[in-house]
Design goal:
19 helices, 42% helix, alpha/beta
């Protein structure tokens, strides 16, 4: 069940923003998202929270400055998603700018699992012989891995943003805004954001040691294109601090000041960097990088982001494009199989979905979970075989159901049923024995029934109400596209009543519409729907500038129609 609701806003706050010169519609959009102060609105780097506020960052800066002075060899151990890849690229580029000897390793996720495991430590020591291992976007749960590194005489610096477990690893330094005792105000930094902050602190420490001054210091802002990409792609909350990082990265991309790999990814996905938007990062560039980690080897993605050779970056981007096409095919097939499984279940009567198929690919289960969650609006976990009688699950959740906490509760209620788990409120992963699947499904559903009321399983599409006729314009769309929208700072969705002029089905899967309001006609498209519509329809929509044969027209991207 889905219903449309209008997002409330304080008229007085919107009016104050308008009086300060903000566009009247933009003023109410920002007021509805509770962004009304100078700090909320600023996208300048000066608006960032100071690195010194983060627990462990001063110690990390001193530790790394000493290591660089001693010419110690460092290896970054990266995670295999877009956040991990960009965090690794930021670490490689930034540390080299600051004089470090640093390389990276990104282990095969299917062979070595997630995080800094003892096996990954042994592999890293064997292949790279580092003095220091630096984790990016992982490590906060790697108690055994850090212990193994110490046994082998290797020190570990953990940089991560995931929620910690009961026990912290005994690392030389931990930098994570979500670790106990950290008072850093933005808990929503992505892994790449944490690594960028470590570099800022390290540069400040080296400046204090007299190694350079404000004029001669390396320009770390050149890394902001990578920071923006990882932040958007990891779907972390775009609080004021993250909006600054993303806005600054987008500004560089639009000005053509981006690394060769990001430029190649724009080109291969048919997007224009001069018009770079968070949507491009989240739905075009991010998936192409993620596909490498899902189906092949994320070292390919990291190589794309760390090379300065444009021809090489383009060659890798084309490989990533091909892998992403394969990923889409696999995903479609898995989704069809999932829907067949769910035909046997009474989804409407359940509070959760957990489904397994032996033909599924581990690398794509997270995307399929996300699609099923969107379709049925239930916390969803999809499982694939992981070898040795184990299955691996990837989950996506809905507001009001903290997925990692739910897995934690199941593991406490039935000790031993979950082998490993970790993640966030909205996304998490786990592994268990295939024979324990039914036990897990029942326990997970019991948590769902206990935590979720029926009304929470009703999807509410929040809109910003009606849009005045004058703003169905390309100029207004361009104004909206210049803003930073994303997770917990949602892009504007408007809602109004239209007369249906015509409808036809496109590619057997989508509805192409012509809608009319107050004498104006608009093309519209509703992806993934083929419903027969009434003559008068209530439509929730986003604005889009659609270019065809050299002519740009306003198009409505339909989010929902009350049928």
């Amino acid at each position: 069940m889905t219903r449309i609701a209008t997002r409330p806003y304080a008229f007085r706050e919107a009016e104050l923003l308008r009086q300060r010169g903000m566009h009247p519609v933009l003023a109410r959009l920002y007021a509805a998202r509770h962004a009304t102060t100078e700090k909320d609105l600023s996208t300048e780097l000066s608006g960032l929270h100071a690195p010194a506020e983060m627990k462990g960052i001063k110690e990390a800066a001193c530790f790394l400055a000493d290591a660089i002075a001693s010419q110690k060899v460092m290896t970054i151990v990266a995670d295999y998603d877009c956040d991990g890849a960009t965090a690794c690229a930021v670490g490689i580029r930034g540390l080299r700018m600051l004089g470090a000897q640093v390389d990276f390793i990104v282990p095969n996720r299917f062979e070595y699992g997630y995080g800094l495991t003892p096996e990954i430590v042994e592999l890293t020591v064997r292949e790279k012989q580092p003095d220091i291992i630096i984790t990016v976007d992982n490590g906060i749960a790697s108690v055994d891995g850090v212990k193994r590194a110490k046994e082998l005489g290797v020190e570990v610096v953990v940089t991560d943003h995931h929620l910690p477990g009961q026990e912290l690893p005994d690392a030389a330094v931990i930098v994570n805004p979500n670790q106990p005792g950290c008072t850093f105000l933005s808990k929503n930094l992505a892994g790449v954001g944490v690594m960028f902050y470590v570099l800022l602190a390290l540069r400040a420490e080296m400046r204090q040691r007299g190694l350079f001054d404000q004029q001669t210091q390396p320009k770390l802002d050149s890394l902001l294109d990578l920071v923006a990409l990882g932040t958007v792609a990891d779907v972390v909350s775009l609080d004021a601090n993250n909006r600054v990082l993303v806005a600054q990265g987008l500004k560089r991309m639009r000005a053509g000041r981006m690394c060769a790999g990001i430029a190649a990814l724009f080109r291969v996905s048919g997007r224009e960097a001069q018009k770079a938007s968070p949507f491009d990062l989240g739905f075009a560039l991010g998936p192409r990088l993620n596909a490498a980690g899902r189906l092949a080897d994320m070292a390919l993605g990291i190589a794309c982001l760390t090379t300065d050779d444009e021809a090489h970056a383009w060659h890798i981007a084309q490989q990533l494009q091909a892998i992403n096409s394969d990923r889409k095919d696999i995903e479609r097939e898995m989704q069809d199989i999932a829907l067949l499984h769910l035909d046997d279940l009474q989804v409407a009567d359940s509070h959760t979905i957990s489904v397994y198929d032996e033909s599924w690919h581990q690398g794509v289960i997270g995307i399929v979970a996300s699609r099923l969650k969107d379709k049925f609006y239930r916390p969803t976990i999809t499982f694939a075989p992981a070898g040795d009688g184990l299955i691996k699950g990837s989950g996506r959740s809905i507001p009001g159901f903290h997925l990692r906490d739910a897995l934690d509760l199941v593991s406490k209620q039935i000790p031993g049923v979950i082998h490993k788990f970790g993640g966030h409120a909205m996304a998490a992963g786990l592994s268990l024995a295939h024979e324990d699947l039914a036990v897990f499904q029942a326990a997970f559903e019991a948590v769902g029934q206990s935590w979720l009321e029926k009304h929470q399983l009703e999807r509410i599409i929040e809109t910003d109400g009606a849009l005045e006729d004058a703003y169905f314009s390309i100029d207004f769309i361009q104004l909206l596209d210049q803003q930073v929208w994303g997770q917990h700072f949602p892009p504007p969705v408007f809602c109004d009543q239209f007369r249906l002029i015509s409808q036809r089905i496109l590619k057997e899967r989508h509805l192409k519409l012509v809608l009319e309001k107050n004498g104006q006609r608009f093309d519209a498209i509703w992806f993934g729907h083929t419903d027969e519509l009434d003559e008068v329809v209530n439509v929730a929509f986003r604005l889009d500038a659609n270019e065809y044969n050299g002519v740009t027209k306003v198009q409505l991207l339909v989010e929902h129609i009350d049928t």
